[in-house]
Amino acid sequence: MMLKLQVFVVKANIEVGSSYWEISSLQAVSAHKWRSIIRHSGVSQERETQCKQVVDLRKRINPPLEKDCFGNMVYLTSATASVEELLDRGLGWAALQIRKLVSSQTNENCRSFAYDWVRNVKNLKLGIGSKVDGDTILIASSPRFEVYNKDFGWGKPIAARSGLSSSFNGKLTLFPGSNEGSFDVQATLRSDVLVNLLADVEFLEHVTTILHD
To answer: Which InterPro entries has this protein been placed in (predicted)?
Structure first.
């Protein structure tokens, strides 16, 4: 999996062709999932598509908060493109849109969001029954979220997954893989999209299936 991921990131950076806009492994994987899912979602070329990302505010505000700060210090932001652009311009271009989105989350943006939220409190409800159109994916959690060094008396975990209450169409939840340097992606998608993905050679080229006893 690690070798596949390295090749994947190199490909994205070659397509971008700029050391200033270096693409991370997380951005490359996110772009790959975005393009692959939208390709098989039956959305028209003219329609707008979004890749929503959950942004961690802890290190983006000044002064920064400790990484272990308890609470939901996050908000949603979106990379946007037409379906035609997303599919025609390649992996590197899609990853670059996500890279620019991440870079634009400054201290000023984070504080502005916080002030607006306090003045207009909204209870975000995502879960069973949530409606996200087929033109949108939402990426949550992070492969940096350490789960494999926890032992509650059952032994070392073999995998991490989120519950049904936080699953809805288009939701991707990222976890660190059990193999160092790998990602696990829990995807909630329509059955027809899943069937098409499993027949997509380009998609499967960068995916490893691990069977647990």
So the answer is: CAT-like_dom_sf (IPR023213), Sec_Metabolite_Acyltrans (IPR051283)
